[in-house]
Design brief:
The chain is an alpha/beta fold. 41% of the residues lie in helices and 18% in strands. The chain folds into 2 domains: 17-197 and 312-450, 3-Layer(aba) Sandwich (Aminopeptidase), CATH 3.40.630; 199-307, Alpha-Beta Plaits (2-Layer Sandwich), CATH 3.30.70. Keywords: Hydrolase, Signal.
Length: 471
């Protein structure tokens, strides 16, 4: 009699025994699909706001699975949302798919550029897009199979690399109704540590002067390139007098074509970074003053266009610790003999690897730290509680924005890392759908971290998306 009562009592409880193993096995079965999408995005390598084929591929896959697609959101043709489900909590999942210009590489462990290719996935966004797609499809399947109330919304977010695509989506209110947002990124390690980022702003400073023959009539000229160089010198002197954790960098994008022609136009592209938005704005005001002074001193004129701006990442320890737990349940990346050989060969190109080979199998210790990169996920994190994870898609010791990152992002090593991220995000979503206390705690921490009377402010102002910034 007691045994019968016990069995009835157990039968009345939700049966989640071995549910995670079942979910992970189903994601393993999606490996080929993840690999196909990741490789296609890698081959196209479309740069910011020009990701027409990449965006459409993801949309097509989601539409075929029953997601409702909304195209061209926030005034961006390659941005979209895809939603599935009803009732319950709304979980967002971010996906990126833009490549970096000026770098390309075959999926080989030796330096081997692909002739005629002008961009490459040196930050692994092809994997980001494919891994998030796999996670979204897996979460959708779980919602259906368990008949759990809840919605999943996939955000196709273009132009993370200097275009701040997500900022325009936040500004358009597309995250206002989201309970929690998940994201991930390619890396050379597995980690769910709570790592913040630097706020940043960028602009193209355009100097205009007067052309003349550099030898025959130099007195009649006013060199726009002199204006750029004077500006750069002034900012470089300023570096000694900014907060230690600040970052300022630039590249001259136009400076003339012939030495004997004084250029009447020159352009320099600047980034300014700091741990908080106010710090960026304080430094930025000084940079603008330097531009005005350089123009005055060289007899030229200057104007500038803000291209992008990101708030720092607002970490959520409640969510990050949960994600760390899920990542440890998933485990790291194990190489086949062929992948091991690939990794050993590519590491020969490293001067001083940060991590040892084999660390791709480990999960890094949980910690809270400052990261020196910047991301438009920062603005999302001020709109909704947000949590991310990093997976070892690259050979340990690889730096982002390198040819080695491009190579691994197009390989099976990259796909395995994307699968790790998809698994961790899927398990995290399941936990969030079924654990109201966790959602409430994360929301309470989020509200406290933003502070009283918080009002969102973007660092790019009210400008429209710079759809041509990579052209």
């Amino acid at each position: 009699m007691k045994r019968w009562l016990l069995s009835v009592a157990l039968a009345a409880l939700p049966v989640f025994a071995h549910a995670d193993d079942n979910v992970l096995s189903k994601i393993d079965a999606k490996y080929d699909d993840t690999a196909t999408v990741a490789r296609q995005l890698w081959e196209w390598a479309e740069v910011g706001y020009q990701e027409e084929r990449s965006s459409q591929l993801l949309q097509d896959r989601l539409k075929a699975a029953g997601f409702k697609i909304t195209k061209g959101v926030a005034g961006i043709p390659t941005a979209f949302t895809a939603e599935y489900g009803s009732g319950g909590p709304l979980i967002g999942i971010l996906a990126e798919y833009d490549a970096l210009p000026g770098i390309n590489q075959d999926a080989t462990p030796d330096r081997s550029p692909i002739e005629g290719k002008a961009a490459g996935h040196a930050c692994g966004h092809n994997l980001f897009g494919a891994g998030s797609l796999t996670a979204a499809l897996s979460i959708k399947e779980w919602l259906d199979e368990t008949d759990t109330p809840g919605r999943i919304r996939f955000y196709g977010t273009p132009a993370e690399e200097g275009g701040s695509g997500k900022v325009y989506m936040v500004r358009a209110g597309l995250f206002d109704d989201v309970d929690i947002t998940l994201h991930w990124h390619a890396d050379d390690e597995n980690s769910a540590a709570a790592r913040t980022s630097l706020a940043n702003r960028s602009a193209k400073f355009r100097f205009r002067g007067v052309s003349a023959h550099a030898a025959g009539a130099p007195h009649r000229a006013r060199s726009a390139l002199d204006g750029v160089e004077a500006f750069n010198n002034m900012v470089n002197l300023m570096r000694e007098h900014v907060p230690q954790q600040s970052r300022i960098h630039y590249v001259i994008t136009q400076g003339g074509l012939a030495p004997n022609v004084v250029p009447d136009f020159a352009e320099v592209f600047y980034y300014v970074r700091h741990p908080d938005a106010d710090g960026v704005e304080n430094i930025w005001a000084r940079v603008e003053d330097a531009a005005r002074g350089a123009a005055l001193g060289t007899g030229t004129e200057v104007d500038w266009e803000v291209i992008h701006g990101n708030n720092p990442l607002l970490v959520n320890d409640t969510l990050a610790k949960m994600m760390d737990e899920k990542l440890r349940e998933v485990g790291g990346v194990k190489y086949t003999p062929a992948e091991q050989k690939f990794a050993e060969n590519i590491r020969k190109s490293f001067d001083d690897p940060r991590l040892s080979l084999g660390s791709q199998e480990d999960i890094q210790p949980y910690s809270r730290s400052l990261g020196y990169g910047s991301t438009d996920v920062g603005d999302v994190s001020f709109a909704t509680p947000t949590v991310g994870v990093r997976a070892a898609t690259w050979v340990p010791g690889t730096s982002a924005h390198s040819w080695q990152a491009v190579a691994a992002s197009g390989s099976t090593i990259g796909v395995k890392g994307a699968q790790v991220a998809a698994k961790a995000m899927t398990l995290a979503a399941i936990e969030l759908y079924t654990n109201k206390d966790l959602r409430d705690a994360a929301t309470a921490e989020f509200i406290e971290a933003r502070g009283d009377n918080y009002k969102y402010k973007s660092l790019l102002g009210d400008r429209k998306p710079p759809l041509d910034y990579r052209k």
